[in-house]
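1st attempt posting a full record on here, be nice pls
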Amino acid sequence: MIYEYPPPGEPIRQGDIFVGLPRLDISLKKVRVVGRDNQDDSVWETSWRQIVKAGKPVAAIVAACPVAAIVATQDCDAQTAPDITLCEIREFLDVYHTGEPTTPKKWARVITQHARKNLKWFYLPPDAKLGFQTRMAVDFFVTLRVNRHELEGLRQMRNGRLSDEAEEHFRSRISDFFRRYPYDEWYALDKSEFAVYKSDHAEAKPRPWQV
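the predicted structure (as tokens):
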């Protein structure tokens, strides 16, 4: 469909999809540190604030979860920069929280209209060769930073990449996401209009003129 399958030797490009990269998760309140008082095998717990106060690097135990991810770094930087940024890919319904469409008509509306309005994700259809058994989505909120040279050594984990048309769309969506202007869309409503809007958007906070 919208994918290509480059040979392992091709340079890394924006839109390349890797499967099985590590997403590292660390708690800032409880950091498990290895080595204390010259005991290399000791493990103790502290906070990130205390580590910063001490002013010394530490070896910490962090959780690592294998995830699928797509290269967000532009092509020129992906071949020269020391690090490459990727965005995590998850099952579509883990990213899209409005409920599962139940008919082809509703899916078509989500993939076209909803995807155009919602800048927080990028839709990826299933593809068995790529390893996607179900509908997936890029979550622009979750990024990974990977050393470029080490990622080049793992190009066998690159299962595919976006086609030229899809990659152009993806590049535009990344740009739209990071330059979007956040605002409360209901701020210009009058009192009666806001009352109607509030019935479908419980999280909306009224302005003084809407009370």
